[in-house]
Every structure is written in structure tokens, then in C-alpha cells.
Specification:
Mean pLDDT: 93
Low-confidence stretches: none
Strand order of the largest sheet: 16-15-21-12-13-20-17-18
Radius of gyration: 32 Å
Distance between the termini: 65 Å
Shape: elongated
Helix content: 25-40%
Number of strands: 34
Structural class: alpha+beta
Strand content: 25-35%
Length: about 675
């Protein structure tokens, strides 16, 4: 691949609903630009971007792929991101590294949930967009109906740059509105044809709409427009870029990825209208921790950001970087601003799927990769100057679903933690933790597909076999009443014996454990107080009801007795544990469960269903409010046991439009009938 300056580079993130055809479109553009000799198919498991075995097995994209292509003296970095909601963090990563988004919409399905979500997000961050209306060859697809729907959903800012020749199964080509030319496609080959006479007025009207939008971006163009003067191609290009950047225009290209129709016009639109990385008006996803945003200038000192990490069992760690300023050259002395360590990449290249295209430099605005920088992590800033200001880390979505897993064998268990850490490096939205209380290995993420994919990756990439096990709810036990008991331990077996005798008063407190003593007259020597306290503390780990930890307890040692020869610390520890068991059982013990606070964001039409469902989960609705996007935000509380898989259920209830966050609130008493079942299950397991 030849060298390109910053003005010749375009970075474009593919977004849209799962199944809209993003990967197929990427494959078609690779073929169109001669980056590949034949066009791969998802069904044949031979696409460039979906090269991971898990992607091929599921026939969906799981990770971000960077696919550089060359078109008319421009380099375009296509960032093919997953459409499935479980992998939304990969979309955020791709949008961070791009100056514009290509929204792929399936014309046969219309505007789907993923299109809505990513449209709203790109609107919020003011990212320019181009829409590719895909699958125009499908039966019953009507271009005008689709454009009308887009106008109703997204507004008149959606501006078609093309019309279609034929519709549905009779679709045969594209009309370029700006150049007022028509093309018939035979696969990826096109032939110019006459615009049908009956369509010319339609083309003229569409052209006038485009020109009017462009005129609004500049006073000089506005004057030319009112005076009836024609715009030059340069003025149209500059005006369209300005309209995209100020959010007043979203160009639309129609076509079909599988047949190649319209793809050349799409590529032309990308290089003509998309902003270059060094355009001062362009969106930048990389913000310095302090100071003004950075313009991507190759003459400035080097700063680059690792925006994605890929860990290959054979190649090692690959760090995908966006050069924000300066130019990095092979052999440069690099520094990680997070650790201060010097970096020596084993290789520097452009990544295209799993193919590595070697390069000796990567300039500002471009995307490249380093290999085998093991101490470099996603989000790290690289520079040549240790005093450079690093860039902020991107915020990843909080996990909403948890799986508990167990290794199949001791050998698998030995490899489990390091393998999970590598998967976590690739996807920061995937979290791993060992629960100290239950000792379960927990996988936390955005949904069941993501977590199942990670479990499969453990096997296919690292040879680690695991299976899912029931998630243990961390219940607690406490007391509601008071008790006053004696704990006596006496053992005589020849020689020195053991003797400890304590009287302890138990009473409830709001939380935790508290030990006090009110011993008078030396009935229990002070040097045994720590042993009594330790015996009680060790007993807290297993309550009498179901073996769960005990909390909310105050124990007061107020009397006892000792033997001058047989008493020792161990004897008093045992006596305290005997008193604990008797005292808790006599003080009306109850089971507690963790309760979560939830913040549920949903469109208004799902409010009734979500509230009704929350009531079935023993939840409490605390209040509602409306956010800036017009969605309802429901604040609720619910037992953790009832919302373990709420991420799956909410997505089903709202067709993917709902989202939520949750955090631990407190422990509350479990209703009697449910507590009985929990206790019974605990005894069965014992």
C-alpha cells in the first residue's frame, strides 16, 4: 500500500442493525477496490473481516475489523463493527476512531432498532453520516417508501444523492442525481444509459433539493443560488461537507452490496464529502486530559492512541492505534504515557482482517498497528515526548448480565485466569472477577451472546474448557430479636484439659458485627477477650439457617468462668462459637437478600409492560422522569435474585430499545415463603 498524506485519508465506521449487510458491504468494497481477488460470503465463512472462528460459527461480527482500501488516490479505513447489541462497545470504539459513520440500512427491513440507536448516538456526538440503503434488489422494496420513512424518522436532513432504476426484483441500476447520469449494473460492471424521459423531472427536483441544502452552508453560495447560477463540482463538494459537519445533511446512496450496484458512487461520495481527519471542523473522539482538542497535524509531535487490542495466541498482542498528531516511523523511540516505559514494537503494519500489511510509517489521521507490546493496553497514549498530555479513556458500557462458570478440569482451571485476562484486554466491556464470598468465577458483560461467545473463545483460542453453573446469590443471615446464652467448652482427656466458659448477650444492629465486653470481677481474664472475639468472628461466616454469612449482630461478653490450668485461648474460642450458634438460633434469625437499584430507560410505549414486569419481580417503582431524548426513565428497586437475567428480558420486552443500569443498594429480609425454599435448597446442597 502506497503512502498517503492526512488530506487523502478517510476513516469511516460502519454502523447499523445486525443483518443489515455491513460485513457484506465491506467485503464488496474490498473486492471493488481490488484489495481482494474474489468477494467472500458470510455463508461460506470466508470474509476478510469476520475471520474469528466464533464469528464464522455464529455468522455475526463480534469484534471490530479495520479494512484499509484505496480509491482514486485516497486511502479509506473501513471500520466494520458488529451490529448485535451485546457488542455495542465495539461500535463505540469504531466511532471514536472515525471522522464519519456509514449507516447501513436494509431496504427490505426498513429502519430497525439498531439504526435508531446508532442514529441517536451519532446525532448526540455530532458525527457526520452517510446512509447506504442496501438490498435494493429484494422483492417489494420501494425506494420512495424507504426515503419517506427515513424522512419521518430522522427528518428532511436525509438527502438522497441517488435514485434507482427499477425496483425490487426489477432493480437494475442507479441514477446519480448530482451528475444527472444513469447507470445499469451487471455485477460490479456498470454501463451508462439514458435517464428515462419520465424520470428527468424527478431528477431535476431532487437536484434542486440538494443545491438548496448546500446553499445554506455559505453566504456566497446562497447568493449564487438566488441568482440562479450553477454550482461547480468543487462548490458542491465543499458545501456538502460543510452540511454534513454542521448536521444539516445526511447524504443517502442506494445500492446493493451483493451485486455491486451503487458501490462506486458510494466510494466517490466518501472521498468527496467526508471530512479529512485534519479538517478543523471534523469530529475527534480523542480528547486530551487537559487543553483544547488536537487537530491531526503530521508536523506536530507524535501522539497516538491505542483504541483497540487484539490478542492472538500465535502472533501475540496487536495494538491498533490512531495517530492523532505527528508521524510514527519504524524504529522511533516511543513512550507509554501511562507507565512511562519505552516501547519497541516488534512490527508496524496496517491490519486488514487477519492480514498484516507492513509499513515504515503511519501519519496523523491514519490507523495502523503495533505487534507484541505486551504492557500496552487499550486507551493508552503513545508519544515520543514523556511530557506530552495523554488522551482521555473512552467510557465502556457497564455490565448488565453475569454468568458463573467452572473449569472442566484442573488443567483447564490452571489456564483459566490468564486466558480470561487476554479476552478482557480485547473487549474492555467484558469483565472478569472471582467472587470472594462464593468463590465463583464470574463473567460480566452486555448480554448472553457476548458471554457465550467468550466461553467459546476460551475453548477455540486458548484450549480452555468451561461450563456455566448456577449463579450463587450472596444471601446473608441476621437476627431480629435478642438472646442471652452460655457457651461452655470442657474437655478432659488425661493431662492438661481444655476449659472455657462464656455468657454472651446477642442483639441486632443495622449492619456488620460489633463486639463488646462488660465483664466484672475477672470472671473471664482480659487476655481471653481477643480469643472470644475471634471465635465469634470466625463463626460469622456460616449462619444457622442456610449457612450464609451473618451480619447485623452485636455480641456482648458479660460473664463466664475459667480454670487456672485448663483454660487457654483455644478453649475460649470454642466456647464463643458454641455461644454464637445457640445465641443466633435463639434470636429469631432471618434470611437477607441483596436488593438492587435500577435505572431503566425505555421508549414511552413500553412503560406499562416494564412496570408490570417489575411488579412480578417483587420490585418497587420509585419514580419516573423523562430524559432529553424523550424516553421514560424508570427508577426501581428489586431483589438481585429476580433480575439476574433482566438484560435478556428487557431487550425482549422492548425489541432492543430498552437499556438499564443497576447497582447494589442494601440487604433486605427475604419473604418467608421464598426464604423457606432458599433454606431447603441450601440444605440439599449440603
Amino acid at each position: 500500500m502506497k503512502k498517503y498524506n492526512t488530506e487523502q485519508i478517510r476513516n469511516l465506521a460502519f454502523v447499523g442493525h445486525s443483518g443489515a449487510g455491513k460485513t457484506t458491504l465491506a467485503e464488496a468494497l474490498l473486492y471493488l477496490t481490488h484489495a481482494t481477488e474474489r468477494m467472500g460470503r458470510i455463508e461460506d465463512k470466508n470474509t476478510v473481516s469476520d475471520f474469528d472462528p466464533e464469528e464464522q460459527a455464529r455468522r455475526i461480527s463480534i469484534g471490530l475489523s479495520v479494512l484499509p482500501v484505496e480509491w482514486k488516490d485516497y486511502k479509506i479505513n473501513l471500520l466494520d463493527a458488529p451490529g448485535y447489541f451485546d457488542f455495542a462497545s465495539e461500535v463505540l470504539v469504531s466511532l471514536r476512531a472515525a471522522e464519519a459513520a456509514l449507516m447501513v440500512i436494509d431496504a427490505s427491513a426498513g429502519i430497525e432498532v439498531g439504526s435508531e440507536i446508532y442514529w441517536n448516538y451519532t446525532e448526540k456526538i455530532h458525527l457526520p453520516r452517510i446512509i447506504f440503503l442496501n438490498k435494493m434488489d429484494k422483492p417489494n422494496v420501494d425506494f420512495n417508501v424507504q426515503v419517506s420513512n427515513l424522512h419521518q424518522q430522522f427528518g428532511k436532513k436525509v438527502i438522497p444523492l441517488t435514485l434507482t432504476l427499477g425496483a425490487g426484483e426489477d432493480f437494475e441500476g442507479i441514477i446519480d442525481i448530482i451528475d444527472k447520469k444513469a447507470f445499469r449494473y451487471d455485477g460490479f460492471k456498470k454501463t451508462e444509459v439514458e435517464i428515462p424521459e419520465i424520470r428527468k423531472a424527478e431528477v431535476d427536483a431532487a437536484y434542486d433539493e440538494i443545491v438548496e441544502v448546500i446553499a445554506m452552508t455559505d453566504d456566497t453560495l446562497m447568493n449564487k443560488f438566488f441568482e440562479g447560477e450553477s454550482f461547480t463540482h468543487e462548490e458542491i463538494a465543499e458545501g456538502m461537507t460543510a452540511a454534513m459537519l454542521d448536521g444539516s445533511a445526511v447524504p443517502l446512496i442506494a445500492g446493493c452490496a451483493t451485486t455491486g450496484a451503487g458501490l462506486d458512487l458510494l466510494m466517490d461520495a466518501i472521498v468527496k464529502y467526508m471530512p479529512a481527519p485534519n479538517d478543523s471542523r471534523a469530529h475527534s473522539g480523542f480528547r486530551p486530559e487537559e487543553g483544547d482538542p488536537v487537530v491531526m497535524d503530521p508536523t506536530q509531535p507524535l501522539r497516538a492512541v491505542v483504541f483497540k487490542t487484539v490478542v492472538d495466541p500465535f502472533v501475540g498482542k496487536v495494538s491498533l492505534v490512531k495517530v492523532v498528531s505527528g508521524t510514527v516511523k519504524k524504529g522511533d523511540a516511543l513512550i507509554s504515557l501511562r507507565t512511562g516505559e519505552s516501547l519497541k514494537p516488534a512490527g508496524m503494519f496496517y491490519e486488514r482482517g487477519k492480514e498484516h500489511l507492513d509499513t515504515d510509517e503511519i501519519t496523523a489521521g491514519d490507523i495502523g498497528a503495533f505487534s507484541k507490546l505486551e504492557k500496552l493496553s487499550t486507551g493508552d497514549t503513545i508519544a515520543t515526548n514523556a511530557d506530552a498530555i495523554p488522551f482521555k479513556h473512552v467510557k465502556t458500557p457497564e455490565p448488565t448480565l453475569t454468568f458463573a462458570i467452572q473449569a472442566d478440569s484442573k488443567n483447564d482451571d490452571d489456564k483459566l485466569s490468564p486466558s480470561l485476562n487476554k479476552l478482557q484486554e480485547e473487549d474492555p466491556s467484558f469483565k472478569v472477577e472471582r467472587n470472594k464470598e462464593t468463590n465463583q468465577m464470574l463473567l460480566r458483560g452486555q448480554g448472553n451472546v457476548q458471554l457465550e461467545a467468550m466461553m467459546n473463545k476460551l475453548k477455540t483460542k486458548y484450549g480452555v474448557n468451561v461450563h456455566r453453573i448456577p449463579l450463587i446469590i450472596p444471601y446473608r443471615e441476621t437476627i431480629r430479636g435478642k438472646s442471652d446464652v452460655q457457651g461452655r467448652h470442657k474437655k478432659q482427656s488425661g493431662g492438661a484439659g481444655q476449659f472455657g466458659d462464656v455468657f454472651i448477650r446477642f442483639e441486632p444492629i443495622p449492619d456488620g458485627f460489633e463486639f463488646a465486653e462488660e465483664v466484672f470481677g475477672g470472671s473471664v481474664p482480659k487476655n481471653y477477650f481477643p480469643a472470644v472475639e475471634k471465635g465469634l468472628e470466625e463463626s460469622l461466616s456460616k449462619g444457622p439457617l442456610a449457612g450464609y454469612p451473618v451480619t447485623g449482630l452485636k455480641a456482648t461478653l458479660y460473664d463466664g468462668s475459667y480454670h487456672p490450668v485448663d483454660s487457654n485461648e483455644m478453649a475460649f474460642k470454642i466456647a464463643a462459637s458454641i455461644a454464637f450458634k445457640k445465641g443466633v438460633e435463639a434470636a429469631d434469625p432471618v434470611l437477607l437478600e441483596p436488593v438492587m437499584t435500577l435505572k431503566i430507560t425505555i421508549p414511552d410505549e413500553y412503560l406499562g409492560d416494564v412496570m408490570g414486569d417489575m411488579n412480578k419481580r417483587r420490585g418497587r417503582i420509585l419514580g419516573m422522569e423523562q430524559d432529553e431524548d424523550g424516553n421514560q426513565v424508570v427508577n426501581a428497586e428489586a431483589p438481585y435474585a429476580e433480575v439476574q437475567e433482566y438484560a435478556i428480558d428487557l431487550r425482549s420486552m422492548t425489541q432492543g430499545r430498552g437499556s438499564f443500569t443497576s447497582e447494589f443498594k442494601s440487604y433486605e429480609q427475604v419473604p418467608h415463603e421464598i426464604a423457606e425454599k432458599v433454606i431447603e435448597e441450601a440444605h440439599k446442597e449440603e
